[in-house]
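wait is this the right file?? whatever heres the structure
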């Protein structure tokens, strides 16, 4: 009986041992990597991870994470025996910071699985230093270009794509020092008191290295703190075209359509001056730039109104090209001194009375008292009157002139009222009635 029990025990033990060997693996899975634990540089086409036991590639695909500059990138796996080779589906980026992480259960080809933990950080490319921005210089009065100095020569198309400047301006750039130095040359002068900001990210070198990080900064354009001053408001004589010269005198007197000149101590913003002018009473006109950005002409559309005193106000918000305001409101008064059309003489009849002096009522009265009677033609009872003016008048104004001329009966009151029969323009400045 005991012999039979011993045989049974031996058979059961043999069965259990053989069953355990088929389904349980007590061996330890070791993992080695072609990357050092403390990071560094890697410049091969593929990363190699070596397992002490052969693993299933499909299970590794699910637990391997490759990142570039913090962003996950897709990977391709190639398995040869116990070695697995890893590379990104897109090309390696030189100078970029990568990390490889393997964490999770790896299935063994022989059956079963093992927990795997592996993490490495590295920079891709030869160990020649990172592609970085060494220094930058903001524009100065003597050197208006914005300058950047890099460790490696810059790829031109990549710089055009990855450099930004705010607010945006037109500029060109040139490379110096074998491409390591980039100069930004503005098409126009930097604006006064304008703050500009720049950034460079994702820039590539000529060898394909990626800039190690994002760089950004800001600077002021030309600095100006001087307040503009309104130096003069005066009338001007136009000489034709854009030529003009100021009228002399302390007061401001204008005639006809003479422009008004505004002269400032600094170059001014045209739109600011245009919106900052106000006339009382209001008048239609146009602002024109004078000989430079410091002089502006206000040209009225119509003649200045007669016997009118004008007030012109220059707002305190008027700005120079630097954006600096006047600081306080300016104003001035001016009057209109038009050259009036005058009557030089009036002749009554052939060889009759001629009146020339119209300066004062007294003189006119004396002339009337000393007047010689005018002969009148008896056949048709007409009297010729010739009026000579100080200037030539517009023929289109003839009707208006006739409406302003009248002849009345003085003595005796019973005489027939005179009626205008004919009008003749005897000269550019004479009328015959």
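ok assuming it is, sequence goes like this
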């Amino acid at each position: 009986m005991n012999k039979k029990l011993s045989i049974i025990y031996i058979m059961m033990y043999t069965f259990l041992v053989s069953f355990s060997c088929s389904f349980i693996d007590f061996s330890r899975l070791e993992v080695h990597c072609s990357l050092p634990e403390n990071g560094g540089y890697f410049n091969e086409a593929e990363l190699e991870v070596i397992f002490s036991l052969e693993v299933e590639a499909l299970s590794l695909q699910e637990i391997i994470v490759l990142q570039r500059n913090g962003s996950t990138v897709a990977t391709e796996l190639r398995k040869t025996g116990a070695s697995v080779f890893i590379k990104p589906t897109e090309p390696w980026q030189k100078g970029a910071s990568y990390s490889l992480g393997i964490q999770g259960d790896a299935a063994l080809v022989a059956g079963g699985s093992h927990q795997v933990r592996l993490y490495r950080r590295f920079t891709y490319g030869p160990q020649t230093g990172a592609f970085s921005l060494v220094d930058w210089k903001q524009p100065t009065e003597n050197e208006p270009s914005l300058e950047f100095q890099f460790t490696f020569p810059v790829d031109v198309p990549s710089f055009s794509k990855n450099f930004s400047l705010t607010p945006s301006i037109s500029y060109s750039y040139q490379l110096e020092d074998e491409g390591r130095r980039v100069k930004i040359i503005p098409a126009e002068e930097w604006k006064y008191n304008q703050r500009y900001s720049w950034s460079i990210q994702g820039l590539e070198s000529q060898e394909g290295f990626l800039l190690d990080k994002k760089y950004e900064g800001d600077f002021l354009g030309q600095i100006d703190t001087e307040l503009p001053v309104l130096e003069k408001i005066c009338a001007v004589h136009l000489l034709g075209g854009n030529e003009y010269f100021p009228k002399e005198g302390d007061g401001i007197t204008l005639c006809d359509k003479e422009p008004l000149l505004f002269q400032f101590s600094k170059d001014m913003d045209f739109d600011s001056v245009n919106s900052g002018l106000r006339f009382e009473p209001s008048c239609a006109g146009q602002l024109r730039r004078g000989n430079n950005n410091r002089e502006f002409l206000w040209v009225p559309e119509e003649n200045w109104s007669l016997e009118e005193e004008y007030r012109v106000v220059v707002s305190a918000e008027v700005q120079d090209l630097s954006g600096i305001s006047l600081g306080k409101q300016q104003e001035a008064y001016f009057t209109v001194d038009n050259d009036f059309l005058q009557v030089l003489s009036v002749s009554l009849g052939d060889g009759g009375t001629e009146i020339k002096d119209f300066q004062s009522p007294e003189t006119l009265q004396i002339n009337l008292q000393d007047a010689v009677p005018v002969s009148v033609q008896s056949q048709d009872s007409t009297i010729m009157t010739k009026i000579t003016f100080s200037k030539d008048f517009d023929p289109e104004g003839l009707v208006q002139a006739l409406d302003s001329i009248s002849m009345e009966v003085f003595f005796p009151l019973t005489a027939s009222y005179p009626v205008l029969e004919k009008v003749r323009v005897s000269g550019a400045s004479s009328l015959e009635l």
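The longest strand covers residues 113-124. so i think its the right one actually
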